[in-house]
Amino acid sequence: MKTQNPLGTNIPDAANDIVDGRQSDTALELQRGVVRVLAQHALSSVCELPLPNGRRADIVAITEKGDIWIVEIKSSVADFQSDQKWPDYSAYCDALFFAVKPDFPINILPAKTGLIVADNYGGELIRKPDIDRLTPARRKTITLRFAHAAARRLSDATEPSLRRKVWQGRREPPS
């Protein structure tokens, strides 16, 4: 959902950034488990992060060294086969992962991507991906989107009344 501001530009609705109704129950369970796995590996993560190409990454994570990981959640084989947007995400990360349930046939996933097997409670990083380093300019863009989204979501959680005042008249997220 988007809110129209007085300048005519659309601002993503922060309340719907994380769960916007497009995710299945299975995808939400995977999301929860993957965020826990990433935290165990000392990564900070943001779910449903809009990318500069108009796509939304399921999970974007940043390592302590500043490497950007994108995790694409696949809730079923049909989801994987019907959604071929995932190659578009590689331009915005150093490492691209798939996250699937334990019963997913992992042999159908591309070998160059990382693999996380998870459920609602946690999971395991099974395979590391090929690394393709971002350019410094692209890294800065993604890192700023990540930081702004995380800060905005924290602000919205602690003081929802400020949201409209802060973002009114500005494009979102700032670049």
Describe this structure in words.
The protein has four helices and eight strands; from the N terminus they run E-E-H-E-E-E-H-E-E-E-H-H. By secondary structure, it is of the alpha/beta class. The chain has a single domain, classed as Trna Endonuclease, Chain: A, domain 1 (3-Layer(aba) Sandwich). The strands form two sheets. Strands 3-4-5-6-7-8 form a six-stranded mixed beta sheet. A two-stranded antiparallel ribbon has the order 1-2.
Provide a quick synopsis of the model:
With 175 residues, the chain is of the alpha/beta class. The protein has one domain: Trna Endonuclease, Chain: A, domain 1.
Which helices and strands, and how do they pair?
Blueprint: E1 2-4, E2 10-12, H1 25-40, E3 44-50, E4 56-62, E5 68-73, H2 77-82, E6 95-100, E7 114-119, E8 122-127, H3 136-158, H4 163-167
Parallel strand pairs: 5-6, 6-7
Antiparallel strand pairs: 1-2, 3-4, 4-5, 7-8
Task: Give structural attributes.
25% strand, alpha/beta, 175 residues, six-stranded mixed β-sheet, disordered N terminus, single chain, two-stranded antiparallel sheet
Number of helices: 4
Kindly state the number of beta strands.
Answer: 8
CATH class: Alpha Beta
Major beta-sheet overview: 6 strands, mixed
Q: Proportion of β residues?
A: 25-35%
Low-confidence stretches: 1-16
Helical percentage? 25-40%
What name is given to the CATH topology? Trna Endonuclease, Chain: A, domain 1
Sum up the overall morphology in one term: globular
The number of domains: 1
Terminus-to-terminus distance: 21 Å
Order of helices and strands: EEHEEEHEEEHH
Oligomer: single chain
Mean pLDDT: 85
CATH architecture title: 3-Layer(aba) Sandwich
Structural class: alpha/beta
Which radius of gyration do the C-alpha atoms yield? 16 Å
Tell me the strand order in the biggest sheet.
3-4-5-6-7-8
